[in-house]
Write a structure and sequence with these properties.
Layout (H helix, E strand, L loop, with lengths): L3 E4 L5 H16 L5 H11 L2 H9 L4 E7 L2 E10 L6 E8 L8 H15 L4 E7 L5 H7 L3 E10 L2 E11 L1
């Protein structure tokens, strides 16, 4: 069954956290220590943090669901990298990678960010993220800046990427 993309609700928090855990381990398991992944998930994906983001008016938070199961999520808000929005997160459960779920989430997020008046979107992606970098390239993002990103105390090379909405 094709997933449906809709606004996230507090009831989606457990599913978002499940996708985050699986997605982070699959995307970063080869480049980060398990302790770093666990620390980051505990900090950024604590139930109250996710619910705060899901319910914040300043954040567009979407989920892709099929048969009431969260398959992926994406969020965006004001950017700190320049005038525009920031794609804060986009993850899909690894068993559904390559099926277009992330693309559907991104296209809906783009539409909603445009409705809010944004003209450009930025994202930060780790240079070693072999899943994220090709996704961003396929969706028209271009590198605008290189920098160091510290995740759980570990330094990683990262890129700020951007595209017009």
């Amino acid at each position: 069954m094709d997933p449906r993309v809709r606004s996230a609700t507090p009831a989606d928090v457990p599913g978002i956290r499940r996708v985050a855990s699986a997605g982070w381990r699959a995307a970063y398991g080869d480049i980060m220590d398990e302790a770093t992944i666990e620390e980051t998930l505990s900090a950024y994906y604590a139930p109250e943090e996710v619910e705060r983001s899901v319910t914040a008016e300043s954040v567009v938070y979407l989920v892709a669901v099929a048969e009431e199961r969260v398959l992926g999520y994406a969020s965006g808000t004001d950017s700190e990298h320049g005038p525009g929005a920031e794609l804060v997160s986009i993850y899909v459960t690894p068993d559904r990678w390559g099926e277009g779920v992330g693309s559907r989430l991104f296209e809906e997020l783009r539409a909603r960010l445009r409705q809010r008046g944004y003209e450009r979107v930025y994202a930060v992606v780790l240079a070693e993220n072999d899943v994220g970098l090709p996704f961003y390239r396929r969706h028209g993002f271009e590198r605008v800046e290189g920098r160091e990103e510290v995740v759980g105390g570990e330094p990683h090379r990262a890129f700020v990427v951007a595209r017009e909405l």
